[in-house]
Amino acid sequence: MSEATGLCRSSLYYYFPNGKEDMANAALAAVGNWFTRHVMSTLESRDAPALRLQRFSSKLAEHYANGLAPCLMDVFTIGEAGSLFQQHLSNRMRALMSILAAVAEEAGADKLEAAIRAENAVVAIQGSLIVARAVGNNGAFLRVIENLPGNLLGVQANSTGNVLT
Amino acid sequence: MSEATGLCRSSLYYYFPNGKEDMANAALAAVGNWFTRHVMSTLESRDAPALRLQRFSSKLAEHYANGLAPCLMDVFTIGEAGSLFQQHLSNRMRALMSILAAVAEEAGADKLEAAIRAENAVVAIQGSLIVARAVGNNGAFLRVIENLPGNLLGVQANSTGNVLT
DNA sequence: GTCTATATAGGGATAGAC
DNA sequence: GTCTATCCCTATATAGAC
Predict the structure, then answer these.
(1) How far apart are the C-alpha atoms of B42 and B54, rounded to whole Å?
(2) Residue A15 Cβ under 7 A from any strand D atom
(3) From start to end of chain B, where are the E strands?
(4) Which candidate among A9, A94, A114, A146 keeps its CA 20 to 30 Å from the CA of A23?
């Protein structure tokens, strides 16, 4: 952290008197804000749901470096960090599911169906990041990203994500 | 670890001269073997694919304490551990996907389709564990477990997992 | 405000008594 | 084989000079 800021370790305690926890919260908030402004914001235009979801998928892939970057969500849900920041992470994940569900509803799904599609989407994103890292191959992540818009819109497709004709 | 074994820290070095890495590998292997014998083995009988998958889902839920237990896969794919044990984890995850794909094939899917369903299943399991921990609610995990057999068998269902009638 | 120096604690590991 | 004592190293944090 000191390297990233250009300050030495102890100087950070001037800005974050409560130490580690303060710093992690600040980092978490910064990443969260970035994510909100650059990724989630793509879902808030007045364009068609399909178009917004395309843009969202694209930004999401970028954010996770096509599945090669670790994810704060799972990093912080592991081990001791989990207890300290769960509230923060829980809120962010719920917010993401909520906005995805809103788009699905707008595309015609009823409330329950939309909520389930949104949850499935988040589950698929997180899961594919884990799988990608575990097997050292981002194929699963790329496939999930590609299928994300269709799955949220409820397009009938086979398991490969190809729309049935 | 010392508490778990009843031995003090230094005594463990008698059994694991290479220290931490040896210990972690032993623990990983033990869990892996347990998983193979108790969970993956449910997929190897001569019963119908649907029945085997039901049993598998049930054992899997038990293994993860219905989504409330952390998962070695994601614990070890995070941080420094990742590099040391990636081979181990990669192998186990591939083995799981491979046996799930075999069951899907047996149920009539072609090779590619079966592989994709298997990957989707593993992605959903891992993702739902992350989501369950992040939001402090195992609903997503339970839903994934419930839908797992149908998804692998390629049953046409809506997003809630209810088979279409 | 930012630094150097220092304290404290814990994990990882070894030495050697028994 | 198992223990106690000890060492080393790193992360976390504080003190105090400038």
Answers:
(1) 9
(2) no
(3) none
(4) A94
